[in-house]
Amino acid sequence: MSMDKIALGGGCHWCTEAVFQSLKGVEEVQQGYVSSTGINNGFSEAVIVVYNKQLIPLETLIEIHLRTHQSMVNHSRRETYRSAIYIFNSLQKQFVKSILEKIQPKFKNTIITKVLAFKDFKASREEIRDYYIKNPQKPFCKKYIDPKLDLLKEEFTNFVRN
Q: What is the CATH number of the domain that holds 115?
């Protein structure tokens, strides 16, 4: 298998985790907090996605990420919910930037998601990992996660697990 990884931050990591756990080709989703360098050195909610790039391309993962959180909106909670794609090497950085340029015309507004160097990861507490899998009927899941999963079923059907 041709495995790779990327870290993604956007909204709540419960939502981000559920979105990527539902995709074919995603082998593992680690929920927690990611930090970068410089002004983005504080920890922000994110996931690390380990995926088989033969089954799901990085471009698709990034488009799904951008479409399932507020990737075009600055808001007061951006330190907690940083809109970011965390890269693990310089080759990934150039590739991700080219994907963002290619995808931008699909969006009405400017994408504000940052491409940042991955520095560190802290896993979430065990009791909140796999939140949607353990709690699909909870009001939070119904209100925030289900609509994202519905979007995937509608617009990314070939990549959604059965």
A: 3.30.1060.10
The amino acid at residue 65 is: H
The DSSP secondary structure of the chain, one letter per residue, reads --EEEEEEESS-HHHHHHHHHTBTTEEEEEEEEEE-SGGG-S-EEEEEEEEETTTS-HHHHHHHHHHTTTTT---TTTTTS--EEEESSHHHHHHHHHHHHHHGGGSSS----EEEE--EEEEPPGGGTTHHHH-TTSHHIIIIIHHHHHHHHHH-GGGB--
Number of domains in the chain: 1
* Gap between the Cα atoms of 118 and 36, Å rounded: 5
Domain housing 108: 3-159
109 φ, ψ (degrees, to nearest 5) = -105, 170
- Strands 84-87 and 3-9, how do they pair? antiparallel
pTM of the model: 0.94
Q: What is the mean pLDDT of each run of 10 residues along the chain (162 residues)?
A: 90 94 98 95 96 97 95 70 93 95 95 96 97 97 97 97 88
